[in-house]
Design goal:
This protein has strands at residues 8-13, 21-26, 39-43, 52-56, 66-68, 77-81, 95-100, 105-109, 114-115, 118-119, 124-129, 134-140, 151-152, 159-162. By secondary structure, it is an all-beta fold. A hairpin with a 7-residue loop joins β1 and β2.
């Protein structure tokens, strides 16, 4: 690790029935040429449904954490699912698939590990764009005897959280 973040990032998007789309992006203010021992994670730090970037430092010298807020997409809809085991702990390794009425399956895996100077939050975050609601969810922890739990989402207006499998049909307002 050189401690230098590149001025560009690479975004790879999978497209059904086509080659992946690869796009070079400018990371803007997140380029930190003086960062020592950097590790990064994304999280919704302020609860607005937009994923923000946190960059941790500190391998060879003390440095503050950098927070980069998103400046676009504030009108987009989103859904955050926080799956838990039957014992209440975070369901690391769980696969959560959301189906909207306007798209196919959107799948997220709850990260079971961590990286260098960082760790991802145990949340399946779905950016839904302008889709108005999700038709149903299929949380699927690998260790459960049942293959999936189908949750029908009613009156989902687009800015929502679900914190337990058993109450997926009763989403609290975001």
């Amino acid at each position: 690790n050189t401690g230098v973040l590149l001025k560009t990032d690479i975004r790879v998007a999978r497209r059904a029935g086509a080659d992946p789309q690869i796009e070079e992006l400018n990371v803007g203010e997140a380029a930190e040429p003086q960062g020592r021992g950097t590790g990064a994670t994304v999280t919704d730090i302020d609860g607005d449904g937009e994923l923000d970037l946190l960059v941790a430092h500190g391998e060879s010298a003390s440095q503050p954490i950098s927070v980069f807020k998103v400046t676009q997409g504030s009108s987009n809809h989103w859904l955050r699912v926080i799956p838990r085991t039957r014992f209440g702990s975070f369901a690391r390794g769980a696969r959560v698939t959301a189906y909207t009425n306007q798209s196919g399956a959107l799948t997220r895996i709850i990260d079971g590990g961590s990286g260098y100077l960082c760790e991802m939050e145990p949340v399946a975050h779905f950016g839904l764009g302008n889709f108005l609601f999700t038709s149903h969810l299929r949380p699927n922890p690998k260790w459960t005897p049942r293959p999936y739990i189908l949750c029908t989402c009613r009156d989902l207006r687009g800015f929502n959280r679900c914190s337990q499998y058993d109450n997926c049909s009763n989403f609290p307002s975001g």
